[in-house]
User: Fold these one by one.
Assistant:
Number 1:
Amino acid sequence: NSLSLIKTLQQFQPYSEEWRSYRKWLRTLPLFLELDGIRIVHACWMDKSIKIIREELNEAKAIKKSIFRGIYTNPDSELAQSIWQTTRGIDLKLPNDLRIRDNHGIVKRSFRMKWWDVPVGKTFRELSFENRSKLPRYTVPPEIIPDFVPYPDDAPIVFFGHYCKALGPHIIKHNVCCVDSCVAGSKSLTAYSWSGEKKLKPKHLVTIF
């Protein structure tokens, strides 16, 4: 979020060369990994978005600065939307007559959705993920649900972070695992020791405090 970014910029302020070096290094990192049997992504794996990113970036050694500028100058482009979805997940915008506040009392106009679940027929509370606000228990109107294809049950295991799951559970379903244990707050790191299995096993989770 913007607060974290401000803190990062403040910490790097006396170290301009290091900041430049880190930015250059970060642009060499992939936005996703698809390996033999597993997938790794920051926030959300949607086949359509992954396909667009793969085609547009063409497996370049480093992502050009112009790509990131384009996210802001042309936010509605397919590539910009695909990168946002992959790195931030899917948010559900709330109706104008529904206001919620998070645990800091800040009014929120959207919340993070479970992109691996079928959304139709779910309540606001059932559809939310890693949400610090009290959401209503009535069914989400179909007309405000974003158009997306839930992560398939027969797809490879996908590992991701982004969502602060300090208390778990980290294994969301048999092929979906969030390893973000919110180290900044919980002071713990979580990982999964994958051994080729097709379904996630709780005993393979490793947490270091």
Number 2:
Amino acid sequence: MSVLELEEIDVTYERRDRVSLKAVVGASLAVERGQIVGLVGESGCGKSSLARAAVGLVAPTAGRVRFEGHDVTALSRRARPRALTRLQLVFQNPYSSLNPRRRVGDQIADGLADGDARRAVRSRRVGDLLERVGLSAAAAKRFPSQFSGGQRQRIAIARALAADPSLIVLDEPLASLDASAQAQVANLLVELSRSLELGLLLISHDLAIVRHTADVVSVMYLGRIVETGPTREVWSAPLHPYTEALIAAVPRPDGSGTLPDALPGEVPDPARPPSGCRFHPRCPHRFSRCPAEEPVLERAFTARAVACWLPRDAVPTPPSQRAATARQEGFVPTHKGGTA
């Protein structure tokens, strides 16, 4: 059974100009114990809003949040902290998420599941948690300013582990770290997930990190999840043109890895999304149906789902190959860019 289930979540904000901004639209995903689910997409696509809806920091305007089998969507602010103790959140910036005026050990101890335990027991538990994330127990007596960014993020993870969680949501936890620290913390997350049977929802704009850590990946564009599936399968044979473009943009040792010329422009204003498929203004394979009708996320093959109007073959095939075949069959217009 999934430890966290998000069902058709909408998150809407009211801007100062009284325009409604739908940051998340109909997003669904699930995380099981011992599983790492990656949520990827460009900045501003709604990843963080979905994370905040999952942990109760923002109220979804539609949809349902289930945690450990219980519907926690409509819990009051008073009931929510008790019900969601085992659901923790690690923020992006470890320089601001830790209190600079309190010792590290005290901040970790605040979250201990056995908060009423004796001082010696609490101190020993804090030391164990610090060692669990690769730091020494003596670090408990120091202040956050005495640690590097990677070490601070380890401390933030230890603080989340103090509550004995079944799931941790990590909102861009590696974005502010250098490459070496990113690799170390990513390896730590995988080890913790496996050894503790801990579910992780890892939110990132870095597909390379997600590729090496996540078991399942969901790709988000302009508030909607457009593709989901096992990470290796998505990476080897993406089904959505946006996923294909993201993978193509990952830097490579030979210096390649830039957005292709066929993917121009920026992410549209979420307050004024395009008609039909939200990706169609930037899609190199679009055709007449794309601006007219919005595709829904539908199951494709065994464990894959995609929201795209391109025809799907009997085996997973990248969008560029499917579009070429479709053009030959007269399905997609053959003029430049495949546009309608």
Number 3:
Amino acid sequence: MTDPWAFGWTQVFTLSGLVITVAIAIAGFKTFDKWRREKLEEKRIEVAIDALALCYEARFIFDGIRSPLAFAGEWEDMPEIGPDAERSQRGAFFATLKRIRASKDFFDRAWKIQVKCAALFGSQVEDTFLLMQKVRREIEVSAEMLMHDPRPQDTSPENQRLWQKWRNNVWAVTNDDAVSTQLKRLREEIEKLCRPIVDHGCR
């Protein structure tokens, strides 16, 4: 009778099969891990490019919103507010609000890219993207205030400064106003984060 504990070819084949199976599994895991890292890097590069493109597009969007040139057609649907003599003054600020509404798609895309960037690059990037939404809101509030009251009734220095601040928020007359400074900071921070990722991926 054959001893079942005796080492023979059956055991050799069994052990060989086990070793081969383990080796294939390890190789498979390594291949999957490499594939996963490559896919993640591709996604990082894709999102970084989208963030940079949005950042550069923001310049044109905000230049359009903040243009001091407004045409009568932009405020023809403005509701009646105050004396007719002030309608053109109010209309210039209504035009700004209308341009912001017309750019809704851009700001919606900004929110979506912000979420992707936070997931891939860390939650701290949210603060950078929030600058864009904060600037939009500052322009919006300033335009609403000026549309309802284009000139301060109280001519005290404090009120004059406040109205001038609102005008500076609405209109891009200089490149060093508070809104322009924040948009510049946004561009610099996005470039600092995303440019190395894009450049590294292109090598």
